[in-house]
Amino acid sequence: MVRYTFKRLLSLLLSLAVASLVIFAVIEVAPGDPASFMLGMNAQPETLAALRTELGLDTSKVARYLAWVGGMLTGDFGTSYTYRTPVIGMVADRLWVSLPLALYALALSTAVAFPAGIFAASRRGQAGDIGVMGATQLGVAIPNFWFAMMLVLIFAINLRWFAAGGFVGWDKGFWAGMHALTLPAIALALPQAAILARVMRSSLLDVLGEDFMRTARAKGLTERQALWRHGLRNALIPVLTIIGLQFSFLLAGSIIIEQVFYLPGLGRLVFQSISARDLIVVESVVMLLVFSVIVVNFLVDLAYAAVDPRLRSRS
Amino acid sequence: MRRNLILGGMLSALFVLAALISYVWTPYDHVALNIPNKLQTPNAVHLLGTDHFGRDILSMIMVGARTSIAVALVAVGIGMGLGIPLGLWAAARQGSWLDELIMRGNDLVFAFPSIVIAILITAIFGAGAINAIIAIGIFNIPVFARITRGAALSLWQREFILAARVAGKSAARISVEHILPNVTNLLIVQGTIQFSLGILAEAALSYVGLGAQPPTPSWGRMLADAQTLVSIAPHMALVPGFAIILTVLGLNLMGDGLRDYLDPRLRVVRA
């Protein structure tokens, strides 16, 4: 296990290094000089040069890359060109919206998908199974941002149970914050819940065909007891992997859902930064998203290997 | 489940047909503004109503189908064109540094969700339909590379491949002449799924302004336009939404149906 962890850790660091290089290179070739963008068309050459020095734009590409990566490692993500404030603070503020939203959606999707998947598997081929599977087909076909608009139309505009958009802020209290994130979280959770329910069902059906399930039935457990005591626990392993993978999709998906609800999350920060050519902010947010995907996948791999020793020997 | 295949095929064909017909005929000019006729609900003259500029929504949906299908199709093409050779190559050199490199590269691309790739591309080139194609296409590459490699690996253990090797065929020739034809079914099914995911991704990117730009009609942008008007003209949001749902549902059903239809194991059972 130690050897496996070490190997995966090496590969994790390598992935992060390559990802940071790719992101840096992409932003480097972006046209437009941030300094001249900030000062406008009529800037004096001396002011421009001074600003370029201040922003570190006149040093070599290698020096800038190392400064960027070195800064990130020590928690310094640089200074926003447009707001002149540290990027880390801006990102942290927005993360307090995007991260709870992703986690809320993950909780909702799991809470819906588990019972739905178990229900469908235990009634394989019957009307209940066909109904659930039909619903999941619809769930993956509905664009979540459109579903979000429909939720706004029904629950915010017509029923007035929720606000149509915006975020009250956590200082108004935990429940007020959660209330504001409820519709976005439901919209974000919909396709993930549909996928997860399918995985839960098929994983459970695989397990139900195993010999130990027949043994459990033979020793006198009812179908239901066998399912709950032996089936579910064994079916959970692939399901947990999918949940881990979904977290990164939720974080990225929140970028789009935030646009529907005008939520001040990472997504809005990125779009504002792109239009203001505040590339250091774009760079940092993209790196943060990619970092979270890579790290979550790494953790899922480790957890998987810890549970199932057979996986450690594989590549 | 032949029913899935037929129902899905019919739904998908409906939208492909709408897109094709839009090249020669639409009920109205999809860009013609007609402010006095704005925000009409569906009626006999405008079957699906009009938008806030008085444009005919049915005409826009037909032309928008063109954008969705073109973007998703080219994106699948990019994914297959690069992913399948990479997957075949990795499988032919299983366990070597090349295999390792290709698979780790795939993992790396997977870490960039298509929305993130689109954001990066937009930061450089600005927004546009081409960027949406590239962003979705890049994300498709590892999908096809993985599925091709996985299927090819088990084929390499088979005796008919051994026979081909004994006959003196090179790994590249075996990959093309024996492995590829045997994974085609799998790739067609995956292609259908990626096609439907591409349509969803294109809609999402256009919705946030990273995809097709005006005046190119796109279902995602129609939804973006509809958002502020959703309380007074819900049909503006409902119609493009249903267009996306029905197309994606059709493609997914067709994918499921194709998998059952093409799966050789099921065919044996039937015979």
Description:
With 315 residues, chain A is mainly alpha-helical. Chain A has helices at residues 2-29, 34-39, 45-55, 61-73, 87-122, 127-141, 144-158, 174-208, 211-218, 223-261, 266-275, 279-307, 310-313. The radius of gyration of chain A is 24 Å and the shape is flat. Chain A starts with a helix and ends with a helix. Chain B is an all-alpha fold and 271 residues long. Chain B has one domain (2-270): MetI-like fold, CATH 1.10.3720. Helices cover 75% and strands 0% of the residues of chain B. Chain B has ten helices and no strands. In chain B, helix 1 (2-24) crosses helix 2. Chain B is elongated, with a radius of gyration of 22 Å. The model of chain B has no long low-confidence stretch (mean pLDDT 86). Chains A and B meet through helix 1, helix 6, helix 7, helix 10 and helix 11 of A and helix 3, helix 4, helix 7, helix 8 and helix 9 of B.
Q: Could you write a compact summary of the structure shown?
A:
The complex is a heterodimer of chains A (315) and B (271). Chain A has 315 residues and is mainly alpha-helical.
Record keyword descriptors for this entry.
heterodimer; A: mainly alpha; 13 helices; B: 271 residues; MetI-like fold; 10 helices
Described by strand count, sense and barrel closure, the largest sheet of chain A is: none
Largest interchain contact: A-B, 46 and 40 residues
Q: Would you state the CATH class of chain B?
A: Mainly Alpha
CATH topology annotation of chain B: MetI-like fold
Level-2 CATH architecture of chain B: Orthogonal Bundle
CATH superfamily heading of chain B:
MetI-like
Shape type of chain A: flat
Uncertain segments of chain A of ≥5 residues (pLDDT<50)? none
Indicate the proportion of strand residues of chain A.
Answer: under 5%
Structural class of chain A: mainly alpha
Shape of chain B: elongated
Radius of gyration of chain B: 22 Å
Helical run tally of chain B: 10
Q: Largest sheet of chain B, described in full?
A: none
Distance between the termini of chain A: 13 Å
Helix/strand-derived category of chain B reads mainly alpha
Q: What proportion of the residues of chain B is helical, as a percent range?
A: over 70%
Bin the helical content of chain A.
over 70%
